[in-house]
Structure formats: structure tokens, C-alpha cells
From TrEMBL:
NCBIfam families in alphabetical order: bL25_bact_ctc
Region (Disordered): 1-26, 191-215
KW RNA-binding (keyword) present: yes
HAMAP family xrefs: Ribosomal_bL25_CTC (MF_01334)
Domain of life of the source: Bacteria
Functional description taken from the UniProt entry: This is one of the proteins that binds to the 5S RNA in the ribosome where it forms part of the central protuberance.
The protein, known as: Large ribosomal subunit protein bL25
Organism for this UniProt entry: Paludisphaera mucosa
Keyword Ribonucleoprotein belongs to the record: yes
Biased composition range(s): Basic and acidic residues: 1-18, 205-215
Length: 215
């Protein structure tokens, strides 16, 4: 189960610091802080800021839940959206949605493939088709990942959504027949047939015979 990461945040003036493209937001990022908002549960949107280091640590930990300390209160939130710069290096803005740990939510969870497939030892190749799935579960029971054991996969073996062993309370919304991962056989070197080889032989052009000189 994913543990909620605890973060100290500061409120922003909603009249002066709205949005992500304003001068105020750019100035804020230059000080090492990231603009963000808390919304949901039919309550007012609260503009906040958090340390850029905390924001990056939160992303690297692949955390779903966060407990935001605003000083006079604590908000339990789901990390809903992270906006990056065009190079994908700097965090520009974070959206947090209010939740309580018992309510059912939908979120993306990573599939963690574990083990060395038998078929790979036979020359096959493990091909991963799906890396994340949308799940529905209580907000307080979001798994860090869904572990998938691939060690038993032989050549042409496969695992589908229906084969997953899910944590208690977690439901996958995808079609049970969706292919997640399989072991494909090695590519075969095909030798051309004799007929094909003959067909590509270069044509031999014989010199024309000279006419006999008249006696």
C-alpha cells in the first residue's frame, strides 16, 4: 500500500498568484518553490506553494497520496497532475485533489514485472505491452505497484489482465483479455529456396555470332 508523503506547504494569495504562466509564478519558481493548487470536495480552491526539492522527491518516490501541512490544518490529497517544462526537466505546477482515505478513487498504478522467464533462457524475448493500469480502490489503499511474476513464462507464454493477482480492495477497469506481457520466439533466419535463388541469378549475355563471310 502506498504511504502518504508528508509535505510542508505555504498558502498563496489567490488574487496575486493564480495560474502557472504569470510573472508571480515565475518569480516563485526562481526562489526554489513550485506553485500548486488544492481542489475538490466542493470546497474552495486553495493556491499553495511547495519546495521544488520536496516536489521532485514526491515524484521520484512515485507517491500517490500526500498529507499537506498548511500550518493551521492538514489536507489529505491525491496527486492528480504534474506539469513539466517543454524539456521535461523542471516541474512547473502541481494539482492536488482532496480525498479521504475511505473513498473510492481511480488512479494509474505501475506494473512491476519480476523474475527471469523460462522462455528467455530458451532464446526468446520478453516483450512488455502494458506498463500501467487504471485501478479503482480506496484512496488509502492505493498499491505502490502491481507485481507481475513472469518467471514461469515459456516461449509463446503470455499474461493477461485476467491473470493478475490484485491486492485486496483493488479492481482493474481494463478488459480481462488485454495482453500485458509475453515471450516471443527468436527470429528465424530463412534461407532462400533453390527456385528463388535461381530466379535472382544474373542473366548471362552471350556474344552474338558473326555471320560467315560469303565465299
Amino acid at each position: 500500500m502506498s504511504e502518504a508523503i508528508k509535505l510542508r506547504v505555504e498558502t498563496r494569495d489567490p488574487e496575486k498568484n493564480k495560474g502557472t504562466g504569470t510573472r508571480a509564478s515565475r518569480r516563485l519558481r526562481k526562489t526554489g518553490r513550485i506553485p500548486a493548487v488544492i481542489y475538490g470536495h466542493k470546497q474552495a480552491v486553495v493556491p499553495i506553494s511547495l519546495s521544488a526539492l520536496d516536489a521532485r522527491s514526491m515524484i521520484e518516490a512515485a507517491s500517490h497520496l500526500a498529507e499537506l501541512d498548511l500550518g493551521d490544518q492538514t489536507e489529505t490529497v491525491l496527486i492528480r497532475d504534474v506539469q513539466w517544462d517543454h524539456l521535461g526537466r523542471e516541474i512547473l505546477h502541481v494539482d492536488f485533489a482532496r480525498v479521504n482515505k475511505e473513498e473510492l478513487i481511480e488512479t494509474e498504478v505501475e506494473l512491476e514485472y519480476k523474475g527471469d522467464p523460462v522462455g528467455v533462457g530458451e532464446g526468446g524475448l520478453l516483450e512488455t505491452i502494458v506498463r500501467t493500469l487504471t485501478v479503482k480502490c480506496p484512496a488509502g489503499a492505493i498499491p505502490d505497484s502491481i507485481k507481475v511474476d513472469v518467471s514461469g513464462l515459456a516461449l509463446n507464454g503470455s499474461i493477461h489482465v485476467r491473470d493478475l493477482q490484485l491486492p485486496a480492495g483493488v479492481v482493474v477497469e481494463a478488459d480481462p483479455d488485454v495482453l500485458l506481457v509475453h515471450v516471443v520466439p527468436p527470429a528465424q533466419d530463412v534461407e532462400p529456396s533453390t527456385a528463388a535463388a535461381d530466379a535472382v541469378q544474373p542473366e548471362v549475355i552471350k556474344p552474338e555470332r558473326k555471320d560467315k563471310e560469303a565465299e
